[in-house]
Every structure is written in structure tokens, then in C-alpha cells.
Amino acid sequence: MRAALQRLPRGQSTVELALCLLVFVTVLIFGIHFAEVGYLSLKVHEAAVSPLWDSTAFRVHRMLENREKVSDFGAFDSIAPRVMGNAQARYRDFDGRSSTPGTRTHVTQVFTRVDDMLVRCARDEEVEFDLPRSRRPALRSPQPGNWGTFPPGQDVGEPTDSVLDGIFENVGGVSCAAEAHVEGLPTLPTSFLEGEGGFFREKHSTRLSMKTCATGRAVGGKCQGRYGILLGDFGFSDPEVSGHCPLQPEQPNVPCSENRAFYYSAMKVFDANGRAAGRAASDFAEFFVGHSPIDEGGFFMSYRGEEDNYIERSTPRGESQDEVDRPRNTGGVDHKPTPNRRPSNKCFLGLSEC
How would you class 315 by CB atoms within 10 Å of its CB: exposed for 0-12, middle for 13-18, buried for 19 or more? Predict the structure, then answer.
């Protein structure tokens, strides 16, 4: 009797270990399975996001030396197909690294398998840059104590007009989605001590077979979610828009020969803003000195890069006498030495004796 009593604790420990192992092994198996599903689903997400960042490396916008058509977005439509084809090829084996090329089209792990990777990219006009949109600036008639009013018949444009029309366009962006098929392997048992008389009341597992999406869940067997990115650039890095543009004070609206594309793009914005808002400056000069040196409604543009070492020396007569603005003037007696500037045949503020 005494020996039997001594053996009872040993048997109890064994029974407790056996019962705990039943639960522990089940939790461990499904923990591994769920981790594999999560990891493989992340590869699908990666396959959708990778081509989006690739798309930012392609040219969207080119400047043209054409006053009527400054911008060319012709290459934009080819971006989505190029990045989609590249991502589909790289992630065919669920590994986007170019250093690990392979011919496999699936990944098999302990309890889970994923295959049939599909990447889709397309132009997306719902992704857009929200340009400031309002009525185009127009000349208003002054009204004492209140905002100015537009004269009858004044063209104020449309609410959707933008001063960048014809230069920057809302071409949209690119959106990408990806999907793959995930299934459980036979190594994951579908039954284990369940049913009447069993240890578990519920079925051990059901063989997994589903579509995994880069974002969201499949609805009706289809992936609805996608990722998008806005594309657009002004493309001022081309050699044809990096040339100098010397000032031509006697030739308004005449493009500089070395940088026509940049000139026309700036001029188009100037035109969209209605050019000069009135003739107040010209009227002022004509009243006091009898002559206005320039047409203030004309367009002038000057660009000189720092590599040109361009400094103005010969300034219009009278400009150096401006004591208030002399430090900010482009010439005068206090300016830098050894400058170089093409002389102008007009005088400061329209001095007629010049």
C-alpha cells in the first residue's frame, strides 16, 4: 500500500504533461502557419509598392522650344507598363532582389505555400496634384473703401483656370496592386483528437486556399485595394533648358536663342496672369520725365548661371544716384570690380537726354 501511494505523483505529472502537450503542439503548429501566411503576404505587398518607387525614376515632363506648346507629357503613358513588367519579372519568385534570380514561381514553407504572383500597374487620374484653382487675375476698377470690381465685359477666366495651364498638367499618377494564391500544405493536419469522445470539441483545421492582396482583403475573390503615387516634374535638367538668357531690354517678347524652352514657360505664366496690371509705372515716368523707357506690358527675362561669372558694370545713367536702393542695384559706383555687361541705349527712368 505504501509503495502504491508513492507512485501516484509520478503518474499525475505524466498525465498533466500529456494534456499540456496536446494544447501546446496545436498552438505551436498554428503559430508557425500563421507566421508563414503573414510573411508571405508581405512579399505580395512589397511587389505592389516596389514599382511605385521605380516609377519616380522615369521622365514625366519635357520642356519644348515652342511657344504654343511648351510642355510635352507624351512619355507619361509608358511609365506604368514599364514598371509593371519589371516588377512582375523580379517578383515572379517572390524575391525582388536581382542578385537572386530564379525560375521558381512559388515559395513552399513548412505548412504554407504561395504561388501565382500577379502585379498590376496603370495610370491613375484619381491621384492628382491639387493646383491652386481660382479665377484668373484680372484688372479691377478701384472702388473707395472696398475691393475693386471687374469692369463690364472683363474676362476673368474660369474657376478651374490655373496660371500653370499649358506648363504643368494634372496628368495624375500611377497606381499598383498585387495578388497571389496562398494555400495550406498537407503537412498541416486537418484533424486531431476532435469529435465525440475526442479531446477537442471543434475541428482541428480546414485546408487553407485563398487569394492574398497587397492591401485589404479580397472581395468576391477579387482584390480591390491599390497603392498610388503622384508623378510630375518640370524637367529643367535638360541641356536645352540650361543655357543662358541675356537681358534684351530693347526687345520685349523676343526669346533668347540659348534657352527658348525656359523663356516660353515663364512667358506663358506671365501671359496667364494678364501681363502687366495697368500702366501706372509708365504713366508715372511719362508725367515726370516725358518718356517711358520700356513697355511694361512686354515680357523680359534674363538668366545667368553662376558659372558665367556675370556681373553688371555699365548701368543706365542716373541709377547710381539712387542712394536708397544702391546696395541692391545691379551696378553703380559701389558695385563689384571687373564686371561685364552689354551697354543699354536707354536711360534710367526714361531720362530723355540720353
Answer: buried
How many residues in total does the chain contain? 354
Decide if 332 is inside a domain.
no
Reported as a single tens digit per residue, the pLDDT across 222-269 is: 898 899 998 877 666 677 788 888 878 778 899 988 889 889 989 988
Range of the domain at 40: 2-129+168-230
Question: Does residue 38 fall inside a structural domain?
Answer: yes
Q: Is residue 305 a part of any domain in this protein?
A: no
Query: How far is 236 from 262, CA to CA, in rounded Å?
Result: 8
Residue 77 falls inside a structural domain? yes
Count the domains in the chain.
1
- Beta-bridge partners for 143: 146
Between 239 and 326, the higher pLDDT residue: 239
Which H/E stretch holds residue 44? helix 2-55
Can you say how many angstroms the Cα of residue 222 is from the centroid of all Cα atoms in its chain? Answer: 28
| Residue 311 contacts residue 331 (beta carbons within 8 Å) | no
Output phi, psi for 141, to 5 deg.
Answer: -85, 130
Strand partners, 182: 114, 210
Count CA within 13 A, CB hemisphere, residue 190: 6
